[in-house]
Structure formats: structure tokens, C-alpha cells
């Protein structure tokens, strides 16, 4: 495997933002996750929960609720606006003012034709979906206090609305409270909290006219909406029940609490021979340390997110095949794209935050040590630049040129380019004007010799700019020969400056010849989205790792998969490689050995040595520790191509610098946990 | 050696009444529980034992009420029989022999059989099932026909077996093993208890993989017992915490507690009308709880703690056996009634139920000859040994022992023996022998009235003499019957002292081997001193100060009968123990029994009889004045002579009944094919952490 000098970087204080809302589209199997800073992320559940798209947030825009209406995604927030998102260009499409004060909740009917929003002033407003916009339709009877939760009856004729202290059911066509229905008054908590009004945080309207509510007194209550009577109360927690989610067949219900636990209820009969069913509390899933704010019940799993910023997918064991990849619980904390760029030649790192960029110079050490030893640092790492963004829109991508002389970032409304000049200890940052053609970009990338900047634009096109001293000149627009409108999420150039590869969320990988400034080819489309990609510096091969952990190597000159890639596909990857949950987020190559492919995910980094045989099915994949204890002959016999190092955890980036040292950017989860606000107090045994 | 047909070793009391779950009768008036080879019927209100149902030849392993006659009870035993009793009159009605030949199947089916006893000879064999009856429960009734003969065959055709497994990998697996199970009487809900203290409620097992469970957690260590109330409204659970937890079925968040039940809960039983709960505990106790809240009766058997540390003694006043029981307590146990009389709290500290925690234990106790003084030694061996010697005076007014003197750190090392001098005068002497190389004599000193202090100050004990011998470690001590001589053994040497002047009178020794036990002869043999080393038994004549005789024996315990010249020596052979009874004057034993019991006997006592027997058989004469009780690792045994046995036989007429029924039933038992109501579920737990649900169709 070789020995590396490792820069173990822990000064990137990346802080994921709390999850505030989620919405799942059953038909496309896409999960939309909204975070407290306004970011909306789209996860593809058909493709190993890969984070397909990220729509950057905007200052002043919070997302309280999300909902899908067909393929369209809407959100509302406390600024009183309804936002529809442009999922192709990853930005908000338009906003509509609801004129009801802060909007707490949004819900669409099952047909996807109408939207209902609940406002602070106690109104429920119905909007109709029209082509490319929404139109106000009607207002329901005004309630006394804010509408916190809404749920449509699956038939689309009634809506249940949860407010303070009560639940009301409306008839959608007349907008009036259903005649037969009394208001369902929710009991307040006992004891000292008797005076405090109860917020009905979540309601669920089932097709058998049952309404289930979760409230701030910690109760999950089952109501008969036709009679307006309470059927059953389950006291779940001392704190709040923040979210409810029901399965598609309405046999299982999840309730998320402020304690961080998710409680499952199931609709089962007490006796086998009797048809009467009731909601029984069954499992308790504990995956969060803080409030569970959003819940989704997919057919096979419970998906929960909350203030601790983890997105947790917990499969139900009875719904999945044991031992399959689906049955592995999965906890997504870090984004599936790189927030770190390395200036390989200069030894500098660029960290991307939503509101700023940081440039750091790596520390230095003159010592040489044995493996595992900690070297003393002669020069400490130092922060060179803190660059605050301009405007309200959050930074969506950023990049640093390999020489460290250029820096570029983009948001939904602007792209900015800077030149960095190092003068011993001082550093000068000069803004370089970009041509007006580039209003925004999805991805930015410098060529290896830092002479060009590539920016991906709408419809997978790439704009090429030539960089000279303090000037950027528009050169050309590269366009793929496909009709995909999806945004590019990966971009990579070759070190020799000949090739540029882009990948979009339609799983297409396009390759351009930069010498001729021309579209070269498209790699055969594979069913899973590429999660990392790089072009080999000498061999003109592009290596792609997909969200399902498959690895492909494609020769750009022959326009076919390489011999090694074919043998890998023929033999199949090792089972424990395929069963990993975290996707590979970065691929790079070694300058010293052309056979090495260096890649990493959140939990490990791996060097694939193409010259060694592939691992056998029954052999141990992570055998580095065993190999170390073997003698020379056995080591040669047992070693295989996948050399996995699990020494570093919670990796954000692993990069190989030009001086053959390795940069490992870690963000320990404990550091994140300590920066979170204190969770609600819980009695723990023996404390 | 002659086989002594006229005396036989019998199991006398001290058997575990908590071995299996007790049974409460339909009218809640009686509590029936197993007790070794017999079955006892107690009154739930007065704690009185009403009947001993005797007849089984081996350990009784199960009890169940006859569902068709609530005045009858079935029992099954390791002797391979099922017996039906009328517990109100205490008579045996019927005996069924089980057709289980191989011992291995008998072992695994025993528990099943005891539950299936209600189908009268219809047996179903479950395989890979834990033998603990707590791992079997039956659900609600559905009509079923069972076949008798082809056991395994009928199993495969009449059962659908479902397996539920919990995660078996990782750290959790070792702790979440199933410990007990209960079925809801009305709903299709199964409650299981687990080693990590969780209770899981399983539901919805109509089709495979569709089942679901919820978890509730209060116990911090394993759940030992689970029971639903008859209406299914509450679930009761218990464990090491000795707290009875009552969960509301359907609202498991609400629970009630009944704490401080004394010791770890082993079983929970609810009466059929739900008014009485009954918990059996690890310290051989059954508690009856009325109206869910109040302990109304406690039936306490002989407590077998982690080991009997004190010697067995007989309290001269109550004729009760005295030994250590619950941690930190001394129990007074009535041999006649097989019931604990009372507990004396010696340590007077709260016992903390936690492993790896060194706590004070009562290690030695001694009673003086009149029963007016009790000496106890408690010890804690944490980092350094902490010892205290307590002396208790019998208070006539309260009829119990009251603490008189506490001597903390009486010795520097652990105390190996204490004994009172048997002198009949008012002043008595206590001798304590310690491994620190000294023995000390303690005497009751009256407060000196002359020093001007208040005269209402009580008499207290203080040290009178400290003796040692060449700084050797003393091991045991013994007073002669008249209290005029004290023998203390120091390694190989026996020193004889005069307690009056504390002069060393003589030394005796018979190397090799350190003296393990000492004993003076009584009555006419009082001139003899017996000493046991690990290889030899020696007898010295104190008048000549010379060895009278010696013989090669590995004596584990020497015991002199206070009412006769007889001395009993228990000899540890390989795994079994032999008994020799002899007079010190003649080395030939007049009674010997080999292979008396398995295991080494280290505790025994001669209990004086209330009225002497007049047996004239030579071999049983030694039992005329007193009875010998000895303790093996799990029970208290004694000898039953032929006259006694005959008297007992004459008293009970049931023997004849038994024989008659037995004849009859052997013919009919195989032919009885009666379809009966039996549960829909036979729920069983396998040892490999799989919950097996069988649906009998």
C-alpha cells in the first residue's frame, strides 16, 4: 500500500443544519429533506439513498413544511411564502405570498391538484395547481389560532386541521366545518402544565375516517372523525410528539418525539379470529439524540430527521430480506458531495460553508516516523482567508485551482472568481470579473494547469473560460448530445488538459475533448447515479464509482470499458464492498503509481491496486491488519486489489498532494454533537 | 458392614417450596406448593400448613389444578408418575405412569408433561425446549383432539410451529435471551421477559414475518417472572429487584410498584379470581399479596443462602434449628413444623442487591447451653477483613434476642471458631479462636457499683484472657461437658487449658497432619478427647494424657451427642459421605452407613427428642435420645427409624388407597382418549433464544 505522510485535518468545523421537514414522493421514490438553513436536499431511495440534488438555501427563507404534488415540490415557511422549486436547475422557481402570516404547514391532495396551507392567522387556504404556477382558490372558516398541521382525507373531500387545543375537519368543497362533526378538543397535560395550551403538531387523516393526532402534551390520540369522538389515547412521552407518518397501506404509524425516539403503532387485531383492529403501540426506535422533527414511512423503512441533523433510515426487519442491502440501517450526516477542495501543488485547502469560504494552509513537519507515529508539527496550519459571500443566496459550489492561485464560488444568483497571490506571509485576494454570460453555475472546476475555468450551466452545458492575468475570457460552450435537462453534479478534468467529464443526475457521463473544444462521447448509461468520478492523468481512462458502489473504468480513446473494468464486472465486487452504506465521494490517482486508484467514503479510504488480483468472494475484504502480521510469502498470496484503511472516521475528504502526502479531513461526530443545543432532559437509569 | 434396613435416610424439611410456581385454589383459600418429594397445602390467610401430600418417590416437578374439578390437583414428579390429589382432604386419588422410557426425553418433556397433565395421559413432546417451566405458557382455549401413542408423530401433524428470533449477534445478544413467557388470557398477545430486563409484548402472529412486538423496560436486571391477571388487564413482572411491577395492559406507560418484598422474585401466580397475587422468592419464601397492594401472608421455608457459614445449632428454648439464612440474618427454623419461626437481623444494614459488592455476612454463631446468650461473628472481606463480634441476650419480655455488646475488631484475623463454655453457673465464658494466632476468652462483667456510676448500666462482655501457643495458628476449640477443660488446637498440637485459672495443663499431639476438628466425649466417656486430622481420627485419654486409639479416616465433621456417649463422624469419601457412630471408649462403631448421601457433609446437629424412643435394635439405639440432622448442599436430611415409620404409616390410611388406585389405573390410562379443552397456543422457548410458538390445530 505504501506509506504516506498524513495531514489529519480536524479544523474544518462543518456543522450540518437541523432537519426541519421531509416529504416523500412514492411514485418517484424521491425524499425531499429541508434543513433549518433553507437547504432542500433530494434523496433517491431507488438508488441507495443517494443525495441526488441539493438546492441551496437563502437567508431569510426557512422551510417549515414540504410537499410533493406529482413531480412538483413545494415548501412553505415562516416568511409567509409558498415556494416551488426548479428541480432541474436546483433553485427556487417562484414564490407566492399566502397573505396569512407565517405559514406552518402545506399539504397536497392525493390527486396532486390542490394545495392546502395552514397559516398563523388561523386560516386554511386552498391553492390550485396550474401549469407552472399555483392559483389561490378558497379560504376556509377561520379558526381561533394558528393552523399547525393539515392532512387530506385520501378521497380529497375533507381536510383535518390541527391547531392549538383542537382538531377541526373541513369539507373541502364548501370550506365549512363538517356538519356532523364537533370540534375535537385535545386534553391538556396534567398538573402544572394545565394552563399551557396544547399544540397539535401533526395530524393524519386515514381513509377509514380515523384522525390520528400528535400533540405537545406527548399524546398520540386516535379519533373518529365522523362522530368527533376520542377512541384511544397513547401517552408516548413527557415532551412533544412532533411528527407523525403513516404507511401507504395505513397499517403502521410512526410518531417522532422530542426525546429523539420514534414510536411505531400498528393497526392489528387483538385476536386472530376477530376482525376488529386497533392501534397498538409496538416498537420504539431510538436513533436520535434530539427532537425528531420530520418523519416519513416508506414501504420498508422509517425515515426520520431532526435537530441533530442526522437523516436516519431504519428498515423494518419484517419487510426486507435479512442480510440484503436494504436491511442495513443507514445514517446520513455528511453531504454526498465534496465541500473541500485541495490546492494540490500549493498545499492549501478550501472549505465551503453555506455563508463563507475558508482557505487554510497545511502544517508542515520535517520529521519522518514509523507508521502510526504522530509527527511533531514545525509549522502549524493557518487560516489564510475567510471570504464572506455576497447576497442572500447560499454558496452552492466552490473550487480552488490546483496551483492555489485561483478560487471560484457560485450561488443561485452569482458566480465569483478570485485570484490569490501569496507573498511570503501575506496573501492578496483580487476579484476577477467574469463575463456576463455566467449568471449562476451548478459546478465549477479549474483545469489542471489553472488556465481554464469550467462552469456547468443549465441543461448540462459547460461554459469554458480562459484565465489569464486578472482576466477571464469566455471561450466556448460545450453541449452534450442528449436531451437531459438535469443539472451536472460532478465535473472532472484530466491532468493533461485533454478531457473534461461531467455527470448529471440522469446518470449520464459526458466527455468533452478540450483540445478540440468538442463533445467527445457519452459513457454508456448505468442505472445508478455516479457518486464520484475522475480521469486518469496518463491513461485517458475515466473511473466512475456509482451510488450502488459499482466501479467502472472507461477508456476514452477506445470508447469502451477497459480490460480491468470488464474483469471486475465479470468477477463481481466483493459482498462487503457492495453492502457498504455510505457512497464513495471522491476518486483520485497516484502520481507515482499509475495502477493506484484512491477513493474514500465517510468511513474509510481505499487504494485499489489494479495490478493485484481481485478479492475472492469468501475472503476478507478488509485484511490490511491481518496482512501486517503475516510473513512475506503469505502476504503476497493473500493480498488483493482492495486495500482499505479504516483508521480515519467521519471523513469529509481524502486528497493526495503533489508531495505524496495525504490530506485527511475528518469531522468527528462527537464534535458536531457537542455543538448542538442541549436535548430535553430525560431520566436515565442510575443517574 | 451390615445394611441397616430398620433405619433409613429421609428428607426432612428444608426443601425448596419455591422450586416450582405455587398454585392458588379456585376459592383463593389454599395455596399449594411443591416441597421436595411432597406437596404442601397452606392456608392463604393463616399461613398454616394444612396438609402434606406424600406419595411421590422423587422430586415433585409440577403442579396444576384439575380443570374439571377445582378441588383436585395434579402433580408430576421425577419418578415418572402423575398423581391426582384431593387437597381438601389430603388424599391421593389416582396415579398415572408416564410412558417415557429414555431419561433424556423424560428430562425435556417433564415440564411439558406437567402442563399437559390436564389431558390425562395425552402427551405431546416438544423438542429443543428449555426445561424451565417458566418458558412455557398456554393461551386461550380451543377444542383439540390429541393422540397418545405416537408422540412425535402427532406433534408434526397437529402443530404449526413458528419461530421468532431476536438478534443473535453483537453485544446485545448475550443479554437479551428469553427468560420467561406469559400468554394473555383473552388477546393474542404473548409477553416475554428477557435477560436485559426488558419485557416484549408480541402480537399479530397470524402469518409468518408479520408479527410485531413492543418493548417496555423497567427492570435493570433479568425479568424472572411474568404473569397476566385473569382478565388480562394487568401484567405482573418481577426480578432481582424484589419489586413486583404491575403494568396496565394496553397502557404500558403506566405502572404500579410493590417494593421491598425481601428478595429476588422467582415466580408470580395470580389466583383465578384475581384477588390474590402470590410471589415466590429465591430465599425459599412465598408471599401472598392481597388486593394488589398489601402483603397479607408470608410462608417462609428454610433459607439456603449462598452457603451455610455458621454451624447448625439447636436453640434450647424453641428447639429450633439456628443457622444463617438471608444475607446478614440468622434464621430460627422449626424442625417439627418445617417452617421458619423468625429471622434475627444480625448485621442491621440494608442489603444491596448487586453483584461484586462485598457485604457483611454472618460467619459464626454460637448459643450457650441454656439459650440465654447468642454470640455472632460477622465479617466483610473487602480489601481488609472487617470483623465484629456481637453478643445477644435473650429478653424474656420480648421473647427474642437483644443486642448486648458489640466488639468491633475482636481479632486481627478471621475467626475460625467460637464456643460457649457449658458451665451451668450464671457466669459463662465465650472463647473465640482466630487465625491471627490467638484465642480470646470473653466474660460477662457486671458494672462495678463502687466507681460511682449509675447502677442501671447493664452488664457487658469484655475480654478476660488472651492465649497463644508458640505463635501457631489455632483452628478449633472445644469445652469439656462440665466446662472444666478447654481444648484448643494449634496446627498439629492440641492444648488443654483450665478455664478457671487459664493455665496450660497439657499438650497432646499426633503428627502428621493439622487438627481439623476437636470433640470431648460426654457422660461416661468424658475423659476422652477426640481429634480429627485430615487423615486420622485420634482418641486421647485425658487421665493418662496418652493416645487411646487412632484410625485412618478422612473425617469431615465430628459431632458429639449431648445426651449420650455417642459421637458421629462424617467421613468424606469420593463424592459420597459415610457416617460412623461410635463411643470414644471403644474404637468399633456400632452404626455405620456408607454412601449416606452425595457430597460432603460439613454441617450436622444432634437435636434432642421431646420424648425418647424405646427402640431396642442395637443399630438404631443411638437415635433414641436425639435425632441427627445433617445438611447436604441442597437439603436437610435425617434418619427415620422403623418404629417411627410404622407409627407414621399407621396414621395415614392413604397408603392403601394409593395401592388400590394404582392397580386400576395402570390398565385404563392408555385407553383414555378424551378430547379436552386445551390451549390454542403452547408457547415454548428454546434454549437457543428462539421463541417457538406452536398452534395446536
Short description:
The complex is a heterodimer of chains A (687) and B (697). Chain A has 687 residues and is mainly beta. The interface between A and B is medium-sized, with 18 and 21 residues.
Give an account of the 3D structure.
Chain A is mainly beta and 687 residues long. Chain A is built from five helices and 55 strands. In chain A, the strands form 14 sheets. In chain A, strands 2-3-4-5 form a four-stranded antiparallel beta sheet, with no helix packed on it. The two termini of chain A are 48 Å apart. The relative contact order of chain A is 0.09. Chain B is mainly beta. Helices cover 8% and strands 48% of the residues of chain B. Chain B contains five helices and 54 strands. In chain B, strand 25 and strand 26 form a beta hairpin. The C terminus of chain B is likely disordered. At the A-B interface, strand 24 and strand 25 of A face strand 16 and strand 20 of B.
How do the helices and strands line up, and which of them pair or pack?
The complex is a heterodimer of chains A (687) and B (697).
Chain A: E1 5-9, E2 19-25, E3 30-35, E4 40-44, E5 50-55, E6 65-69, E7 72-76, E8 81-86, E9 91-97, E10 103-108, E11 114-119, E12 124-130, E13 133-139, E14 149-152, E15 158-162, E16 166-171, E17 184-185, E18 200-205, E19 210-215, E20 219-224, E21 229-235, E22 241-246, E23 252-257, E24 261-269, E25 277-286, E26 292-297, E27 301-306, E28 311-315, E29 330-332, E30 340-343, E31 348-352, E32 356-361, E33 382-388, E34 395-400, E35 406-411, E36 415-423, E37 426-432, E38 443-446, E39 452-456, E40 462-468, E41 471-478, E42 488-493, E43 499-504, E44 509-513, E45 518-523, E46 530-535, E47 541-546, E48 551-555, E49 560-561, H1 563-571, H2 575-578, E50 586-589, E51 596-600, E52 605-609, H3 624-628, H4 632-638, E53 642-645, E54 651-656, E55 661-666, H5 669-675
Parallel strand pairs in A: 1-55
Antiparallel strand pairs in A: 2-3, 3-4, 4-5, 6-7, 7-8, 8-9, 10-11, 11-12, 12-13, 14-15, 15-16, 16-17, 18-19, 19-20, 20-21, 22-23, 23-24, 24-25, 26-27, 27-28, 28-29, 30-31, 31-32, 32-33, 34-35, 35-36, 36-37, 38-39, 39-40, 40-41, 42-43, 43-44, 44-45, 46-47, 47-48, 48-49, 50-51, 51-52, 52-53, 54-55
Chain B: E1 7-11, E2 23-24, E3 30-35, E4 38-43, E5 49-53, E6 60-65, E7 72-77, E8 81-86, E9 91-97, H1 103-116, E10 136-138, E11 141-144, H2 151-158, E12 159-165, H3 170-175, E13 178-183, E14 189-194, E15 198-203, E16 212-217, E17 223-228, E18 234-239, E19 244-248, E20 251-258, E21 265-270, E22 276-281, E23 285-290, E24 294-300, E25 313-314, E26 320-324, E27 329-334, E28 339-345, E29 361-367, E30 373-381, E31 385-395, E32 400-408, E33 415-420, E34 429-434, E35 439-445, E36 460-467, E37 474-479, E38 486-490, E39 493-498, E40 503-509, E41 515-520, E42 528-533, E43 536-541, E44 546-552, E45 555-560, E46 567-572, E47 576-583, E48 586-598, E49 603-608, E50 626-631, E51 636-641, H4 642-651, H5 654-668, E52 676-679, E53 681-685, E54 690-696
Amino acid at each position: 500500500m505504501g506509506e504516506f505522510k498524513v495531514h489529519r485535518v480536524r479544523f474544518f468545523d462543518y456543522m450540518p443544519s437541523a432537519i426541519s421537514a421531509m416529504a416523500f414522493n412514492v411514485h418517484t421514490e424521491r425524499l425531499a429533506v429541508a434543513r433549518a438553513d433553507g437547504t432542500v436536499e433530494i434523496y433517491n431511495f431507488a438508488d441507495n439513498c443517494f443525495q441526488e440534488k441539493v438546492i441551496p438555501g437563502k437567508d431569510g427563507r426557512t422551510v417549515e413544511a414540504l410537499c410533493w404534488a406529482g413531480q412538483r415540490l413545494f415548501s412553505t415557511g415562516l416568511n409567509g411564502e409558498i415556494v416551488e422549486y426548479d428541480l432541474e436547475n436546483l433553485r427556487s422557481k417562484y414564490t407566492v405570498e399566502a397573505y396569512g402570516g407565517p405559514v406552518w404547514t402545506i399539504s397536497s391532495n392525493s390527486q396532486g391538484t390542490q394545495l392546502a396551507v395552514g397559516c398563523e392567522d388561523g386560516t386554511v387556504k386552498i391553492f390550485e395547481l396550474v401549469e407552472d404556477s399555483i392559483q389561490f382558490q378558497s379560504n376556509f372558516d377561520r379558526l381561533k389560532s394558528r393552523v399547525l398541521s393539515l392532512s387530506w382525507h385520501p378521497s380529497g373531500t375533507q381536510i383535518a386541521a390541527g391547531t392549538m387545543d383542537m382538531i377541526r375537519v373541513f369539507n373541502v368543497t364548501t370550506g365549512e366545518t363538517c356538519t356532523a362533526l364537533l370540534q375535537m378538543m385535545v386534553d391538556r397535560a396534567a398538573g402544572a402544565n394545565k394552563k399551557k395550551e396544547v399544540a397539535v403538531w401533526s395530524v393524519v387523516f386515514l381513509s377509514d375516517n380515523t384522525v390520528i393526532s400528535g400533540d405537545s402534551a406527548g399524546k398520540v390520540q386516535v379519533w373518529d372523525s365522523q362522530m368527533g369522538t376520542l377512541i384511544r389515547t397513547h401517552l408516548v412521552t413527557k415532551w412533544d410528539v412532533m411528527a407523525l407518518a403513516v404507511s401507504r397501506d395505513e397499517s403502521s404509524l410512526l410518531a417522532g418525539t422530542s426525546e429523539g425516539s420514534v414510536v411505531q403503532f400498528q393497526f392489528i387485531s387483538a385476536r386472530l379470529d376477530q376482525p376488529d383492529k386497533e392501534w397498538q403501540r409496538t416498537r420504539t426506535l431510538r436513533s436520535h439524540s434530539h427532537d425528531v422533527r420530520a418523519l416519513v414511512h416508506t414501504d420498508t423503512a422509517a425515515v426520520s430527521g431532526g435537530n441533530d441533523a442526522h437523516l436516519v433510515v431504519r428498515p423494518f426487519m419484517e419487510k426486507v430480506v435479512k442480510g440484503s442491502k436494504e436491511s442495513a440501517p443507514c445514517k446520513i450526516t455528511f453531504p454526498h458531495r465534496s465541500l473541500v477542495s485541495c490546492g494540490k501543488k500549493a498545499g492549501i485547502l478550501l472549505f465551503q460553508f453555506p455563508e463563507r469560504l475558508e482557505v487554510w494552509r497545511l502544517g508542515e513537519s520535517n520529521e519522518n516516523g514509523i507508521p502510526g507515529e504522530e509527527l511533531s508539527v514545525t509549522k502549524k496550519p493557518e487560516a489564510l482567508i475567510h471570504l464572506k459571500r455576497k447576497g442572500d443566496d447560499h454558496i452552492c459550489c466552490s473550487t480552488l485551482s490546483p496551483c492555489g492561485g485561483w478560487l471560484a464560488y457560485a450561488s443561485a444568483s452569482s458566480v465569483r472568481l478570485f485570484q490569490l497571490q501569496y507573498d511570503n506571509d501575506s496573501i492578496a485576494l483580487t476579484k476577477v470579473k467574469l463575463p456576463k454570460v455566467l449568471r449562476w453555475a451548478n459546478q465549477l472546476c479549474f483545469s489542471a494547469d489553472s488556465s481554464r475555468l469550467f462552469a456547468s450551466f443549465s441543461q448540462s452545458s459547460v461554459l469554458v473560460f480562459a484565465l489569464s492575468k486578472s482576466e477571464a475570457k469566455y471561450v466556448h460552450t460545450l453541449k452534450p448530445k442528449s436531451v437531459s435537462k438535469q443539472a451536472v453534479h460532478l465535473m472532472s478534468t484530466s491532468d493533461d488538459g485533454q478531457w473534461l467529464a461531467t455527470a448529471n443526475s440522469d446518470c449520464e457521463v459526458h466527455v468533452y475533448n478540450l483540445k478540440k473544444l468538442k463533445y467527445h462521447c457519452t459513457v454508456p448509461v448505468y442505472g445508478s447515479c455516479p457518486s464520484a468520478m475522475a480521469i486518469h492523468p496518463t491513461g485517458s481512462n475515466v473511473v466512475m464509482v456509482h451510488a450502488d458502489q459499482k466501479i467502472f473504468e472507461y477508456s476514452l480513446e477506445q470508447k469502451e470499458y477497459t480490460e480491468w473494468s470488464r474483469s471486475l464486472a465479470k468477477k463481481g465486487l466483493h459482498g462487503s464492498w457492495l453492502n457498504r452504506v455510505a457512497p464513495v465521494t471522491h476518486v483520485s490517482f497516484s502520481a507515482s503509481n499509475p495502477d493506484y486508484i484512491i477513493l474514500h467514503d465517510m468511513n474509510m479510504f481505499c487504494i485499489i491496486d489494479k495490478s493485484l488480483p481481485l478479492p475472492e468472494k469468501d475472503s476478507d475484504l478488509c485484511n490490511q491488519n491481518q496482512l501486517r502480521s503475516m510473513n512475506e510469502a503469505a502476504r503476497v498470496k493473500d493480498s488483493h486489489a482492495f486495500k482499505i484503511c479504516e483508521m480515519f472516521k467521519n471523513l469529509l475528504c481524502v486528497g493526495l498532494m503533489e508531495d505524496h502526502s495525504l490530506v485527511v479531513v475528518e469531522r468527528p461526530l462527537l464534535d458536531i454533537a457537542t455543538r448542538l443545543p442541549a436535548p430535553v432532559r430525560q431520566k436515565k437509569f442510575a443517574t | 458392614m451390615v445394611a441397616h434396613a430398620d433405619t433409613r435416610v429421609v428428607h426432612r424439611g428444608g426443601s425448596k417450596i419455591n422450586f416450582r410456581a405455587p398454585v392458588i385454589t379456585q376459592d383463593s383459600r389454599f395455596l399449594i406448593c411443591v416441597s421436595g418429594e411432597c406437596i404442601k397445602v397452606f392456608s392463604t390467610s393463616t399461613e398454616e400448613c394444612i396438609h402434606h401430600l406424600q406419595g411421590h418417590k422423587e422430586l415433585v416437578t409440577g403442579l396444576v389444578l384439575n380443570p374439571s374439578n377445582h378441588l383436585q390437583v395434579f402433580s408430576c414428579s421425577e419418578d415418572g408418575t402423575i398423581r391426582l390429589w384431593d387437597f381438601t382432604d389430603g388424599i391421593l386419588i389416582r396415579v398415572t405412569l408416564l410412558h417415557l422410557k429414555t431419561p433424556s426425553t423424560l428430562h425435556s418433556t417433564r415440564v411439558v408433561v406437567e402442563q399437559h397433565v390436564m389431558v390425562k395421559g395425552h402427551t405431546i413432546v416438544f423438542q429443543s425446549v428449555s426445561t424451565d417451566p417458566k418458558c412455557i405458557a398456554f393461551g386461550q382455549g380451543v377444542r383439540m383432539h390429541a393422540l397418545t401413542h405416537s408422540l412425535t408423530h402427532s406433534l408434526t401433524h397437529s402443530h404449526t410451529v413458528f419461530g421468532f428470533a431476536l438478534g443473535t449477534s453483537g453485544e446485545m445478544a448475550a443479554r437479551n435471551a428469553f427468560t420467561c413467557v406469559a400468554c394473555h388470557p383473552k388477546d393474542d398477545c404473548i409477553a416475554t421477559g428477557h435477560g436485559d430486563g426488558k419485557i416484549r409484548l408480541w402480537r399479530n402472529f397470524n402469518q409468518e414475518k408479520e408479527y410485531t412486538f413492543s418493548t417496555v423496560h423497567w427492570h435493570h436486571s433479568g425479568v424472572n417472572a411474568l404473569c397476566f391477571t385473569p382478565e388480562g388487564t394487568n401484567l405482573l413482572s418481577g426480578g432481582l429487584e424484589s419489586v413486583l411491577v404491575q403494568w396496565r395492559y394496553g397502557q404500558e406507560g403506566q405502572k404500579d410498584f410493590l417494593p421491598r418484598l425481601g428478595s429476588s422474585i422467582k415466580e408470580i401466580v395470580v389466583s383465578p379470581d384475581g384477588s390474590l397475587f402470590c410471589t415466590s422468592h429465591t430465599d425459599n419464601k412465598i408471599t401472598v399479596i392481597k388486593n394488589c397492594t398489601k402483603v397479607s401472608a408470608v410462608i417462609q421455608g428454610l433459607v439456603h443462602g449462598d452457603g451455610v457459614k455458621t454451624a447448625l445449632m439447636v436453640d434450647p428454648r424453641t428447639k429450633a434449628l439456628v443457622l444463617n439464612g438471608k444475607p446478614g440474618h440468622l434464621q430460627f427454623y422449626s424442625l417439627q413444623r418445617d417452617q421458619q419461626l423468625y429471622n434475627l437481623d444480625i448485621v442491621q444494614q440494608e442489603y444491596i442487591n448487586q453483584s461484586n459488592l462485598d457485604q457483611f455476612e454472618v460467619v459464626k454463631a454460637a448459643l450457650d447451653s441454656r439459650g440465654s446468650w447468642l454470640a455472632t461473628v460477622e465479617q466483610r472481606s473487602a480489601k481488609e477483613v472487617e470483623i465484629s463480634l456481637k453478643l445477644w441476650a435473650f429478653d424474656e419480655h420480648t421473647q427474642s434476642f437483644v443486642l448486648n455488646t458489640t466488639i468491633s475488631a475482636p481479632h486481627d484475623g478471621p475467626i475460625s471458631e467460637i464456643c460457649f463454655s457449658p458451665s451451668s453457673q450464671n457466669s459463662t465464658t465465650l472463647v473465640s479462636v482466630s487465625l491471627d494466632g490467638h484465642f480470646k476468652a470473653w466474660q460477662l462483667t457486671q458494672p462495678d457499683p463502687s466507681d460511682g456510676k449509675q447502677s442501671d448500666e447493664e452488664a457487658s462482655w469484655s475480654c478476660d484472657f488472651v492465649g497463644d501457643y508458640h505463635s501457631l495458628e489455632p483452628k478449633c476449640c472445644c469445652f469439656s461437658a462440665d466446662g472444666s477443660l478447654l481444648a484448643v488446637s494449634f496446627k498439629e498440637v492440641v492444648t488443654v487449658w483450665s478455664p478457671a485459672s487459664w493455665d496450660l495443663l497439657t499438650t497432646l499431639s499426633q503428627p502428621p497432619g493439622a487438627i481439623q476438628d476437636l470433640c470431648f466425649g460426654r457422660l461416661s466417656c468424658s475423659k476422652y478427647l477426640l481429634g480429627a486430622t485430615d487423615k486420622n481420627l485420634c482418641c486421647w485419654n485425658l487421665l493418662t494424657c496418652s493416645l487411646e486409639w487412632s484410625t485412618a479416616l478422612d473425617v469431615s465433621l465430628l459431632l458429639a451427642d449431648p445426651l449420650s456417649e455417642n459421637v458421629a463422624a462424617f467421613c468424606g469419601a469420593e463424592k459420597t459421605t459415610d457416617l460412623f457412630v461410635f463411643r470414644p471408649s471403644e474404637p468399633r462403631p456400632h452404626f455405620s452407613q456408607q454412601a449416606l448421601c452425595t457430597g460432603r457433609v460439613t454441617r450436622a446437629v444432634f437435636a434432642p427428642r421431646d420424648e425418647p424412643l424405646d427402640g431396642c435394635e442395637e443399630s438404631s439405639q443411638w437415635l433414641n435420645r436425639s435425632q441427627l440432622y445433617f445438611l447436604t448442599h441442597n437439603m436437610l436430611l435425617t434418619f427415620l427409624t422403623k418404629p417411627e415409620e410404622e407409627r407414621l404409616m399407621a396414621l395415614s390410611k392413604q397408603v392403601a388407597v394409593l395401592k388400590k388406585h394404582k392397580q386400576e389405573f395402570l390398565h385404563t390410562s392408555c385407553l383414555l382418549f378424551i378430547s379436552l379443552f386445551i390451549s390454542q397456543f403452547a408457547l415454548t422457548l428454546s434454549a437457543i433464544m428462539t421463541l417457538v410458538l406452536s398452534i395446536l390445530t
